[in-house]
Amino acid sequence: MLITIVVLAIAALALTTQFGAVLVKRAYPPQGRMIEVAGARLHVVELGPRDAAGPPVVMLHGASSNLRVMQHPLGERLAKTRRVILIDRPGHGWSSRDRVEDSTPAVQSRMIMEALTGLDVDRAIVVAHSWAGALGLRMALDDPDRVAGLVLLAPVAYPWRGRVGRYNELIAMPLIGPLLAHTITLPLGTLVTTSGARGVFAPQTMPDDFVESSATLLLLRPREFIANAHDLVTLKAAVTAQAPHYPEITVPVSIISGDADKTVSTAIHSRPLAATAPHARLIVLPGVGHMVQHAAPDLVLSEIAAMAGRIVQPTTGTDRTAPANL
């Protein structure tokens, strides 16, 4: 009798998840086009004039999100004067990947560079947030001739103490992970999504429409939740391997972080990176948390413009730090 009840409960949760995933997909359809690359199918949204002066700007989102996090407010404002390319990282948003194990910055760097080739982009400024900070750094290491510069927002760059959450580790496990993702993740996630997003914004206040405008609920679909978990549990080993090579980065790097960031520690990541990468500029925003693009969008946009200027006039010295002005 007990076994029957458990089986029926699991079946009910699986049906609820399947139905919920259909509703989420209908609520947040793809906005751009799909580009086939080796091992993935990437969803890309292009904004702004294709013939704008200067290199295009490629915007990459972090974990537990999709390209809309970079589209509002930065991408749409930037697109008034520049060509902007927003990409759902492999396995996120409307991008897929053939193997869930293709979770590292090295693999995703290769996929994104292949997509940019398909878009006839030879060289670009890369703007990357959080998890994607490690990805942007990897792109600069692997393809320095194609990365004109990096603007990193609260980036992950180095290994850290601790773990990435027991639930993520469970989801990344064989058998039990897919079982949880296809049963309880979506029903449970709908209850905690808003509070979780508020925590990422803290100490700033999350915009009332953020969960809706950012299509955050796409994360709760089983295949994306599993991909996100693999991205997180493999990240520490990936940055441990690539961090010793940061002194080899030849492109200009601008780093913007908040000193109140409880998600990605500025002391562990941004400050050491600024002290290590040549031609690095660090701006630390007092009292600002993880979502620096929402807390100080004007500053981020001005730093992107400054990066474009640094590319026109190559750096002749190392600018390690700069004062923060909100």
Automatic annotation (TrEMBL):
Keyword Hydrolase: yes
GO MF annotations, alphabetized: hydrolase activity
Stretches assigned to the AB hydrolase-1 domain: 55-294
Coiled coil: none
Gene3D superfamilies xref list: alpha/beta hydrolase (3.40.50.1820)
Residue ranges of the TM segments: none
UniProt keyword list: Hydrolase
Claim: Methyltransferase is one of the keywords in the record: no
Protein name as it appears in the record: Alpha/beta hydrolase
Classification lineage: Bacteria, Pseudomonadati, Pseudomonadota, Alphaproteobacteria, Hyphomicrobiales
